[in-house]
Amino acid sequence: MIRNILAQIARGFAMGAADIVPGVSGGTVALILGIYHDLLGNVKTGAHALGRILKGDVAGFKEKFFEVDWRFIIPLGLGILAALAALSSLIEGALADYPEEMAGLFMGLVLASIVIAWGLLKSPAVNHLGIVVLTSIIVFLLLGYQNGPLNDPSLIIYFGAAAIASCAMILPGISGSFLLLMMGMYAAVLGAVHDRDIVPLLAVAIGASAGLGLFSSFLSKLLDKYHDTLMAVIVGIMAGSMRVLWPWPNGVGIISEEEGESVSGVGIEWPAGDEWFVPTALAVAAFIFVVVLSRLGAKSEAEDFEPPVGFAPRVEDYQ
Hints:
Elements: H1 2-19, H2 26-33, H3 36-54, H4 58-65, H5 70-97, H6 99-119, H7 126-143, H8 155-165, H9 176-182, H10 186-195, H11 198-225, H12 227-240, H13 242-245, H14 277-304
């Protein structure tokens, strides 16, 4: 019993370590560990419980609540929280001290995620490529209006950003931290975790829970009915958002601790001299790392897959 709990905490730690780095999807790590479908099944059951209580159906809420495998969810959540607490300071310091190098690392991670997400299409066609191109252009242009990370965001913004980022747990190939980065909230959330700032963290926790509850069933239905179209849109979002991850001149953009000012992460310049080497090398290494992880995950999932009751998507959809 204790061994199983510790193993589940370790799985959660691995997912949390992935979630804190833009480009590495917690959903992809769950695939690698062979727990993705159990995770999604429990999230969907929890979402149904939330829906029942919102409708005033207390009996239905209790029924669905006790259908959730809390022995699976609680230690997994503890592991995720432990990773966030242990690694946030390291990542935050690296972002401040090595912005271009970290941007190169993140760029490689997301480029690999783009390849993985495109590979999730069941029947890729020319129209899907058109969706990718159109979405990426729109996102690229919209991000040009982003001035950098948000400084001193309100609790509502923490809540909303966490709700949106939580969708990454449901969609393999897209990172929640990357979505926070796109919204200019990555540094703020990372700082709140590092500083143990309870009130913003509560807003993040409630927002993530609400996002999972509200979006899990909806996104699962979209994946079931419009799988390839949705994945093409996701690929386009990630491709267009490479504007945020271009390492030069300011990396992904940070909030200066000394000056308390935001540094834009959407400016685009060509590297001078040998400034290109280290970020590019990190990008290549990160790309290879994520692709290898993804292949291991596909192999593990194919060998161990047992769909939970009521789960519609097939394992071949995620290979």
